[in-house]
């Protein structure tokens, strides 16, 4: 088959997102997903040399691979060791980099010569899962925005959330100088007084520090109904670890936000799409609550054995494999270092792979490094 150009691939993915933006049943999109994924693998195989070498080490090529499940999974480490880009990297090209908390000398790099697909892949699931009941809301950003940290995918995420869905009272309350606690308190008091729903948007430890401050000041709020708290993930920080239930309780006591209005997402530097807790969308559609995460139609999640990297049965824990059509410029298929468990409704993230569990990861990284020397 004839390999598509970068523009053609992006247009195909963008059209797929437009077509299936509000589709809950992934079976409806399965045939189209498979075709776009195979076209994307062919494009990446031809234009991303490190990925091609790795695929060849797995004895995989577009001539052999006939379904998306067989596309070779690039280990997360590849984004730290290799330049994974289908287009020549320009000096001023936007690049997202991981925080480097695990290995400061090797940070993941994910290059983005265009944000057309990335923005679309962010916008529609955010509306579906985070704002199923309204088009706009007051968003208080508790994570640095894109202007403060242009190399953070989460910073762009927060900025675009406010651009797309924030009303004129929205803003970001943290920058290189730290968190604007007084500004946040003032905004919360305003929304409380006016009866206007608000959404807090930040990383887990944004809330830990904010709650510490409010507790010291003996401040609590009775935020209006339909207010919500959006946590972008991660319960571990450099200062201390926080139990998830303790955080839920503190949020309830401080903001008057119930657990069903608390939503968490799954995302990372190396991918371009996010998955979301389903509780809000199900609540506002009068369905039984479900706190597992759902993927948009252009993402597939599989749970693999930590030993063999083969699929495990439903309800069994394993490594999360992530297939993301929006990752058009690097690798469509990624082997994460996160453990998860999946059922017919969605999946849960159990945390990072540990010690003896990491056999599959170690094998994959060993193969990656061997391919790098080819």
From TrEMBL:
Residues 7-368 form the Acyl-protein synthetase LuxE domain. One of its GO terms (biological process) is bioluminescence. Pfam families: LuxE. InterPro entries: ANL_N_sf, LuxE. GO terms for molecular function: long-chain fatty acid--protein ligase activity. This is Acyl-CoA synthetase.
């Amino acid at each position: 088959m004839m390999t598509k150009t970068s523009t053609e691939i992006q247009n195909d993915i963008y059209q797929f997102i437009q077509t299936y933006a509000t589709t809950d049943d992934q079976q409806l999109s399965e045939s189209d997903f498979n075709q776009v994924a195979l076209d994307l693998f062919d494009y990446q195989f031809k234009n991303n040399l490190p990925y091609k070498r790795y695929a060849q080490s797995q004895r995989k090529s577009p001539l052999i691979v006939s379904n998306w499940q067989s596309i070779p999974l690039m280990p997360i480490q590849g984004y730290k060791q290799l330049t994974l880009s289908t287009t020549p990297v320009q000096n001023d090209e936007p690049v997202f980099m991981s925080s480097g908390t695990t290995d400061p000398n090797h940070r993941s790099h994910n290059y983005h010569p265009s944000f057309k697909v990335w923005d679309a892949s962010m916008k529609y699931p955010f509306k579906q899962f985070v704002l199923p009941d309204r088009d706009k809301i007051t968003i208080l950003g508790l994570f640095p925005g894109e202007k403060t940290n242009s190399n953070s995918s989460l910073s762009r995420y927060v900025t675009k959330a406010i651009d797309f869905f924030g009303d004129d009272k929205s803003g970001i309350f943290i920058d290189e100088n730290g968190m604007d606690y007084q500004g946040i308190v003032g905004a919360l008091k305003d929304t409380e007084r006016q009866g206007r729903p608000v959404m807090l948007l930040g990383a887990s430890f944004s809330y830990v520090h904010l709650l510490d401050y409010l507790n010291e000041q003996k401040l609590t709020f009775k935020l209006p109904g339909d207010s919500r708290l959006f946590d972008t993930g991660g319960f571990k920080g450099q200062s201390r670890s926080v139990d998830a239930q303790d955080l839920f309780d503190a949020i309830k006591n401080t903001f008057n936000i119930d657990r069903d209005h608390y939503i968490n997402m799954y995302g990372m530097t190396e991918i371009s799409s996010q998955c979301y807790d389903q509780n809000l969308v199900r609540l506002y559609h009068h369905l039984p609550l479900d706190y597992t995460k759902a993927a948009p139609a252009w993402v597939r999640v599989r749970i693999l054995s930590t030993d063999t990297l083969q699929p495990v049965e439903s309800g069994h824990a394993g490594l999360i494999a992530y297939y993301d059509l929006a990752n058009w410029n690097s690798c469509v298929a990624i082997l994460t270092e996160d453990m998860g468990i999946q059922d017919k409704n969605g999946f849960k993230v159990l945390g990072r792979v540990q010690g003896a569990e990491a056999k599959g990861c170690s094998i994959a990284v060993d193969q990656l490094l061997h391919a790098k020397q080819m």
